[in-house]
Amino acid sequence: MTPTAPLTPPSHPSSPSSRPSISRCSSCNQSMHHSPVAPTGPITCVFTDIIDSTSIWEAYPEEMWEALQTHNKLMREELLRCKGYEVKTMGDAFHLVFSDAESALRFCFHMQVTLSDTAWPPSIVAYHKGKLRFDEMDQKPPYPGLTVRMGIHFGQPYGEELNPVSERVDYYGSMVNRSARVQGEAQGGEIAVTDEFIEQLRQYRMKDKQLKEDLTGPLNDVIREKILLETMEPPVGVFEVKQDVKRSKKLKGLEKPVYITRIGLIKPPQKDELCETGSSEYPVLASSWWQRALNQRN
């Protein structure tokens, strides 16, 4: 796993003058300068990954470079708001940690809404419109644009170490490996979480008496859904807990099975609920309930 480093532009353009310059974006500098102290002890790990990034890089390198810069800027801005810590990036993937479970979930909820409301390059929008038309039902992205899958897990890392090159603290152990595998179980626009994370979220909220009802007892489908959605209180129709895919699964390289719950971003409003602005081919989400979700970022 490589340390965080300035992004390397695609080699596709033949003319040196046409290639994007190699520079760290201002949001990255801001994020690194103002990021909180690296958490210690039990932590909440978040891994993110852009869906189909390899195929998009092959087909539209210039547009993907533009989209990646936008994606990274949005990620780091929201990370600052949620007081998370950027461990490193791996290509288009982020490894993040949070000192509390609620901040991690808030980050993922807000980022999924933000990404769906972003004006992506037209060629990337067209690419995902094709997937909306031809993909299997469970594989369809929720909107035409750059889509991201996320995974959250809570636990105690075996150890942490300061990377002398990136000057960022990195985390090691089975807890980190499990977090990365969980992210791989999500589809575009989804957040995959473990029972360990949901339990920590429940304990955190019960301690502060923030749960609206008694949700004690062994975790079951009803309790999982109420804890996750009640924590963020998203407007009706924005997210759903996917009842048919919660399962105990043996993930590659892990001895113990993991019980995973997926939270899905529901497909945004249809065309007659949207309005067009400017020359962008990506419609601005205009329904009142979706705007409420966007307002949660503030």
TrEMBL record:
It comes from the Eukaryota. Residues 1-27 are annotated as: Disordered. SUPFAM superfamilies: Nucleotide cyclase (SSF55073). Residues 44-183 form the Guanylate cyclase domain. PROSITE patterns: GUANYLATE_CYCLASE_2. Residues 1-13 have a biased composition (Pro residues). GO terms for biological process: cyclic nucleotide biosynthetic process; intracellular signal transduction. This is Adenylyl cyclase. It comes from Hyaloscypha hepaticicola.
